[in-house]
């Protein structure tokens, strides 16, 4: 027998045995670090918490400890308590007075002139038209002022201010019902639809209106029926979460009418006072979309009455906004106007013109970008702000 071959075989077998033993050797377990003193002493009772992980910042959950489960629960946003609607426009009056300085002071200056000839009256009328009062209303104001000035003869500044205030209030019509109807019905909530074109601040107005109502003690459900933009529903959820108002939404592209119906159904189930439905910012040139808006209203009425249809208009858009208003009024029977960005234009006369054009009152006005800068429209506070013509006489916010 060849001893050399035999030796080689024995050597190979020995290597295999030694290598196998090394591969199957149990891995040495590391001794876990000693827990903190507080955990050693109180861990059994579930009263202590583990140190947070260095990377994630999360604490290790101790089994059976309710305190730790609460600590790891997602944070619930703090519910805000908005201020009530009463007196909001008075608080924001200085802001309005600053924007209407040229309008109010210009009229007062012209009317206080020593001589009011034909040229002066034409300038007064032009000032009114420039402020978007409208041609018809401007002519009526001038005619009435001319008659009263002729009767009075001499005019003190106080008399001039009083005459102008009286005429502006007459054109705005202080007798109109400007309340947003949010009182619930037996077994069903009040329903408010918010409509308007893109860019007017419609979704923001919906969220701010929810704050107004919550501030007045109402419970609110929001319907995100602008299903053409997912961002609109996200925005509405942000507004709702801040005041504890649930939001009914569906995926982008869903049927807006079905979302509106579900929102009202949720309001009925929750016993909510008011449901506010935000609709898509439809272009008034697209007849199909406008027809769909009418469908939303009809579907809502299968569940509850629609108490208010608020058209949101940008006060800075002037005549273009009025054209939009006319088309919306033909489709959904507008019951009130919300004028946004009124603090950003000197053309406060738009309040008078839009009411004359549509035959419905301005109910709410936006006077800033803050969450509580939406206010119920108060004709007297509005006219007084115009005639104050500056922050020094407008009081404090």
From TrEMBL:
This is Signal recognition particle receptor FtsY. It comes from the Bacteria. Part of the signal recognition particle protein translocation system, which is composed of SRP and FtsY. InterPro entries: AAA+_ATPase (IPR003593), P-loop_NTPase (IPR027417), Signal_recog_particl_SRP54_hlx (IPR013822), SR_rcpt_FtsY (IPR004390), SRP/SRP_N (IPR036225), SRP54_GTPase_dom (IPR000897), SRP54_N_sf (IPR042101). HAMAP family: FtsY (MF_00920). Residues 27-84 are annotated as: Disordered. Involved in targeting and insertion of nascent membrane proteins into the cytoplasmic membrane. Acts as a receptor for the complex formed by the signal recognition particle (SRP) and the ribosome-nascent chain (RNC). It is found in: Cell membrane; Cytoplasm. Belongs to the GTP-binding SRP family. FtsY subfamily. Keywords: Cell membrane, Cytoplasm, GTP-binding, Hydrolase, Membrane, Nucleotide-binding, Receptor, Transmembrane, Transmembrane helix. The lineage of its organism: Bacteria, Bacillati, Actinomycetota, Actinomycetes, Streptosporangiales. Its main location: membrane.
């Amino acid at each position: 027998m060849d001893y050399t071959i035999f030796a080689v075989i024995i050597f190979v077998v020995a290597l295999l045995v030694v290598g196998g033993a090394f591969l199957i050797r149990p891995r040495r377990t590391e001794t876990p670090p000693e827990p903190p003193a507080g955990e050693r002493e109180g861990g059994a009772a579930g009263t202590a918490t583990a140190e947070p992980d260095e990377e994630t910042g999360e604490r290790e959950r101790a089994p059976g400890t309710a305190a730790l489960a609460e600590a790891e629960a997602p944070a619930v946003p703090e519910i805000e308590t908005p201020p009530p609607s009463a007196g909001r426009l008075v608080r924001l009056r200085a802001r309005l007075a600053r924007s209407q300085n040229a309008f109010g002071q210009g009229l007062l200056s012209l009317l206080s002139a020593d001589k009011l000839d034909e040229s002066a009256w034409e300038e007064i009328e032009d000032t009114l038209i420039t402020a978007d009062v409208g041609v018809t209303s401007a002519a009526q104001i001038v005619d009435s002022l001319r008659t009263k000035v002729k009767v009075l003869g001499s005019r003190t500044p106080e008399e001039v201010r009083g005459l102008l205030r009286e005429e502006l209030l007459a054109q705005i019509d202080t007798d109109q019902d400007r309340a947003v109807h949010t009182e619930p019905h037996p077994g069903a909530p009040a329903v408010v639809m918010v409509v308007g074109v893109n860019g007017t601040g419609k979704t923001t107005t919906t969220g701010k209106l929810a704050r107004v109502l919550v501030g007045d003690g109402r419970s609110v459900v929001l319907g995100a029926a602008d299903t053409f933009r997912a961002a609109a529903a996200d925005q509405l959820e942000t507004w709702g979460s801040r005041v504890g108002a649930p939001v009914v939404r569906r995926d982008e592209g869903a049927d807006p009418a079905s979302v509106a119906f579900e929102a009202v159904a949720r309001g009925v189930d929750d016993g909510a006072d008011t449901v506010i439905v935000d609709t898509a910012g439809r272009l008034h040139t697209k007849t199909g979309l406008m027809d769909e808006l009418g469908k939303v209203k009809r579907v809502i009425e299968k569940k509850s009455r629609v108490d208010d249809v608020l058209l949101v208009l940008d006060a800075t858009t002037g005549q273009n906004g009025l054209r939009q208003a006319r088309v919306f009024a033909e489709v959904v029977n507008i019951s009130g106007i919300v004028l946004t960005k009124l603090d950003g234009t000197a053309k406060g006369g738009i309040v008078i013109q839009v009411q004359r054009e549509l035959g419905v009152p301005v109910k709410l006005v936006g006077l800033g970008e803050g969450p509580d800068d939406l206010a119920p429209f108060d004709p007297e506070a509005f006219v007084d702000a115009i005639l104050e013509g500056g922050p020094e006489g407008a009081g404090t916010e």
